[in-house]
Amino acid sequence: MLLSCWLLSVTTMVNAATPAADTQSIQIGYLELQHETPPLLSNVLPDPQDNALQGALLGISDNNAGGRFLGLAYSLEQARSYDEAELLAALHRFQQQGIQLLLVNAPAQTLTTMANQYPELLFFNVGSYDDSLRLNQCVANVLHTLPSRAMLTDAMAQWLIRKKLKKWLLISGTRPEDKDYANAVRRSAKRFGGKIVAAKDWTFDSDLRRSAQTEVPLFTQTKEYDAVVVADEVGDFGEFLLYNTWYPRPVTGTQGLKPVGWHRVIEQWGAAQLQSRFDRQASRWMTDKDYAAWAAIRSIGESLSHQIPYSATDIRSHLLSSQFELAGFKGRKLTYRHWNGQLRQPIALVHPRALVSQSPQEGYLHPYTELDTLGFDQPESQCRLVDQAD
Fold it and tell me: What pTM was estimated for this model as a whole?
């Protein structure tokens, strides 16, 4: 009798660990427009060559860990190129293969071109922080797992105001992305009560490795300020502002105390386990674009685990509904804004060695969720992907 019970127990465990006989193949596309790193004035650490891609691969692995019990086998079809035309050709091949869900690591214009050409597919933006994609140029078949610039600067502004650092010196580079970040800073200042006492463009082409101690103090000599906010997305000069400003003040923005979607120093809420698994796979730290790609793949896996049919239309509807939640190792359940497709998420404020804080900050309230105090809330955005959540 005992032997029979033991055999029954073993049989039950084996059956529970055996994947379903009829396995459905779930193919997801990954498209990346590669770019050459421009010449810089400082020795910055370049982005990894496989930035975002490794996050997508980890998401596939995580989906397969649970999907095999549901008869789902996930795979990633990749296309990476410096030529946009080659990527568009790859997208056409993916569509012909029956792939309906795609991650895109590319600038806003490339992403918009792809989404408009193939409105029947669902795209996840894992590469563009562009605010216009969430504000007034929304495309119905695009969701965003990477935070917008507005989300990042709102997170920073909340922390600065909470610390009573209300007067800011804004220093911006001359590249278009720097100007976009600076505009996001101006919006956040107006939204949360910060005051930009002076705004300056960094136009120098000198080697700051030799002259920072002499040039930066003179450049930052202006009306007294509580903090320096820098807009230098490629890292051309921003690192040299720290400890060299005319007034000894904190530096924040794209350098210094930095608002990010993800960083290696995040270890709470089970994040250390995610970081460890990523490190074993990629032999490097996880970036914010890696996390965005991982979150996109996991969003798909979470939807299909609830028996949502594998179709762009059905998965999009589920993700934008109140029925969807993603456990994202950020201390909160993550959901998508139904008006512009942005994944709601806390934003970490970090320096290279530690997590300092996480926004939304305490005291910033919202009638629906405090996460909507970061970025474009429904009344601010002109986008309406759906009129209301299901």
Answer: 0.92
- What SS3 class is residue 123? strand
Out of 3.50.50.60, 3.40.50.2300, 3.40.50.1000, 3.40.50.1950, select the CATH number for domain 23-147+263-373: 3.40.50.2300
Q: What is residue 209's predicted lDDT score, i.e. its pLDDT? A: 58
Q: Report whether 231 contacts 253 (CB < 8 A).
A: yes
Cα–Cα–Cα angle for 84, 89, 92, rounded to 5 degrees: 130
Q: Is 33 helix (H, G, I), strand (E, B) or coil?
A: strand
**Residue 184 CB contacts under 8 Å (≥ 6 apart), including other chains:** 131, 148, 149, 150, 152, 153
- Digit-coded pLDDT (tens) for 97-145: 999 999 999 999 999 999 999 999 999 999 999 999 999 999 999 999 9
Contact status, residue 137 vs residue 111, Cβ threshold 8 Å: no
**Do 223 and 30 meet the contact criterion of CB atoms below 8 Å apart?**
no
Burial class (CB in 10 A: 0-12, 13-18, 19+), 60: buried
